[in-house]
Amino acid sequence: MGQFEIRRLEPREWDGVFPIVVQLRPHLDRVEFLRRARRQSHGGYELVGAFSEGRLVGVLGMRPVHTLMRGAHLHIDDIVIDETARKSGCGRALMEYAEADARARGMSAVFLDARPEAIGFYEVVGYSLHTAPSMRKLL
User: What is the pLDDT of residues 3-36, one digit of tens each?
Assistant: First the structure.
């Protein structure tokens, strides 16, 4: 591994990413994953795939966002690397793709929510903790 073909996936290809996405999102079944992804696509959500020797080994979900606080930025919703391809550079390649995409759109920042165990990876590729913590209330 090490060389990856990174490209946006067509919606007709989304069903094929489920075996990788479920490694991070085990609470979703295939139907619910596709329903949620299609619904988010109306807001600009896209899936990007990383291929090694023709095999899908990583997936990144991203969307353009504009808020009063942050202005225009790219939000990464998910990045999942197949367990067989972790530590291969695939995650770094997907992040570089997303950053280049954000620059091409005239955006000056990328934001994401990180699980505690993934913070080290994000720091290695140049990300830092944001001062505003995420809050939630289940209803």
Answer: 899 999 999 999 999 999 999 999 999 999 999 9
- Whole-structure pTM value: 0.91
Give me the residue spans of the domains in the chain.
5-124
Which CATH code of 3.40.630.30, 3.30.450.40, 3.40.50.1820, 3.90.226.10 fits the domain covering 5-124? Answer: 3.40.630.30
pLDDT-flagged residues of the chain (< 50): 1
Coil, helix or strand for 10?
coil
Q: Rounded distance, CA 74 to CA 88, Å?
A: 24
Exposed/middle/buried for residue 54 (C-beta within 10 Å: 0-12, 13-18, 19+): exposed
Query: Residue 26: which of 18, 36, 38 has the closest Cα?
Result: 18
